[in-house]
Amino acid sequence: MNEEEKPHHQNKTDFKVNEDSKNQQLEQFREDPKDQFMTTDQGVRINHTDDSLKAGSRGPTLLEDFHFREKMTHLDHESIPERVVHARGSGAHGYFQPYESMAEFTKAKFLSNPSIKTPVFVRFSTVVGSRGSADTVRDARGFAVKFYTEEGNYDLVGNNIPVFFIQDAIKFPDLVHSIKPEPDSEMPQASAAHDTFWDFASLMPESTHMLMWVLSDRAIPRSFRMMEGFGVHTFRFINEAGKARFVKFHWRPTIGAHSLVWDEAQKLGGKDPDWLRRDLWEAIEMGNYPEFELSVQLVDEEDEFKFDFDLLDATKLIPEELVPLKPIGRMVLNRNPNNFFAETEQVAFHPGNLVPGIDVTNDPLLQGRLFSYVDTQLNRFNSANFTEVPINRPVCPVHNHNGAGFMKMTIGKGKVNYWPNSLGNGCPMMAPESAGGYVHHQEKVEGHKIRARSESFSDHYSQATLFWNSLTEPEKKHLVEAAHFELGKVETIAVRERQLANFYKVDPEFARRVAAGIGIEVPKDLEVISTGNYEENDASKQMKKGASVKESPAVSMERNKIETAKSRKVAILIEDGFDSNEVMQVKEALEAAGAQAKIISKLLGKRRSSTGEAMEVDKSHVTTGSIMFDAVYIPDGQQSIQAMKQEGDALHFISEAFKHCKPIATSGNGIALLERAFVLGVNFASNTSGEVMSHKGVVTAGSEADADEFAGQFIDAIKKHRHWDREEKTMVPA
């Protein structure tokens, strides 16, 4: 066989040539942006990419903005098949019912009749991670509600934080690209703790207020059932008379807003990455239906400019001290999906899904979302007919000429599919406003076509300072520690320094506390800057004359804690030889208070009490941990306690719960177990036989103490959720 006759796979020279040829072929598609101008995909150079094209600096975004549409379209179509953002979600069905008629403020029918329960589907989600990421990462959370009203579907698509990172939607692709895994390494997953995000954030001072919320405990909720929701943007209510008011939406959980601690969140990501999803599912299955109260803040149109911030600025909130919340109804989630993909994954939200009586404003972030949400659903479903998927279908009749296409399920009758027509007797007809036809709010719009931001959007620090001022000391401590973690992962020192300069403008002491943990000294040139003395223009100076407050206790979870034991999870640690009578009394009291008690032991199976009764174990140490419970109870029983003294898992369970500031209760011999687990020299030995004592959330009782009193004090400790004054104990080995 001569050289030319050799099989191709045997010719190594040919293989090398082909490999080189492939590299040469690919080379033409590689680009190096160094020293190059930014362009559109058509090669047109871009001279401004920070603001969308608007009719006046506070006007609506214009459809002709080809750069914005191209930029947003690319982001919306980057991920197949999961959502680009909010990919990991959990859903539930339920209903919404108003407390009273809101007809004075809006003609939306579902808000006008207290006797009507409107069906809803809610999707809670993380923002950054993929579908396979963990539930408990530090992140903003989506809080999207689809109301199936008699007038059509209305979507309130919000987050668990009332503000956002950016002011104009044209920056959303940049935000998402920066916070997603870095494109060269595809790391890290579901985390903002890396260079590209903080590089972007440090160069965008408008993100500072949102960063404060994301670094706070708000970003690691204990449960979706214990998480607030916000509409973020300013919308409009319009009544039958045509009078419009600005409106902000708030969801408040009836059992209060609570968080994890960071150590718990990280451990849960490994122990149970489905923690929040499982918690929601199990609560509904058990009949502990999550409930949320919907409240609104209403502002008359004539008061639009009375504040020291712009109502159209999505990086700002309206302090409740200036505009109190008005509760208008409640939502109950009472049914889990039958099929995750068909419902939770295929549900498609859009802030432009409106009903008569509710309208949008010229908020430039909201304006961009009105385009982006439909576009991204087109990518996910590969069809405009995603509205015909059962979870997305309205409950009211749907009639239009929107044609055929992939996934079309409606079977249209007749030969007419256009308007106007006479062959179909002009049907479907136009609906006058009196018959429920949607009419957009009439607002005068004028201005030059311009890529610019309203000067009233220029204050980026005042509300970040307000947030910091409003927190309790434990909350501030957690926020600083979160900044140590996030910025501690940033390798580029210049990025850390730049972000520290932004934090200094929030509060110098806050910046110093952050600096102490990230190896950066506060630059000397910052020391001469007083808080808030950043460059101001005439408009921002004028805004500062408006209504304002220095702090808002309403933004603090600790200041607004709802004390309840309802649906709290309590671990009962036992081994053979436990006191069954005490267990049954305390367990009964816990369940009567609405708490859920689970029996935890070294191994699954049955455990025998000191008097011979058998009790089934719910979870073994290897499958659970203190991080999955809100409180810990160790019943008396000499044999049981002695066994746990020799079990590393049991000792770790107790000390970890103590470290995380959770309520702990024990009696009799169990007191010595606490002292062994804490290794702190904590001495409960002085507790005599007839006393019940509570010290920083640790409830102890002598063997002859009153069981009802003991259980009552333990339940009171559970109602407080956390006992933050225990955080001073830094030597807990957990």
TrEMBL record:
Organism whose genome encodes this protein: Pontibacter ruber
Known cofactor(s): heme
Annotated segments matching region Disordered: 1-41
Function recorded in the entry: Decomposes hydrogen peroxide into water and oxygen; serves to protect cells from the toxic effects of hydrogen peroxide.
A family per Pfam: Catalase_C
The keyword Oxidoreductase belongs to this UniProt entry's keyword annotation: yes
Taxonomic lineage: Bacteria, Pseudomonadati, Bacteroidota, Cytophagia, Cytophagales
Example of a GO MF term: catalase activity
Domain Catalase core: 39-427
CDD domains xref list: GATase1_catalase
InterPro entries: Catalase, Catalase_clade2, Catalase_clade2_helical, Catalase_core, Catalase_haem_BS, Catalase_immune_responsive, Catalase_large_C, Catalase_sf
Keyword line: Heme, Hydrogen peroxide, Iron, Metal-binding, Oxidoreductase, Peroxidase
Cross-referenced PANTHER family: CATALASE, CATALASE-B
PROSITE patterns: CATALASE_1, CATALASE_3
EC numbers on record: 1.11.1.6
Keyword DNA-binding: no
Gene3D superfamilies, sorted: 1.20.1370.20, 3.40.50.880, Catalase core domain
Similarity section: Belongs to the catalase family. HPII subfamily.
Entry protein name: Catalase
Feature: compositional bias, Basic and acidic residues: 1-35
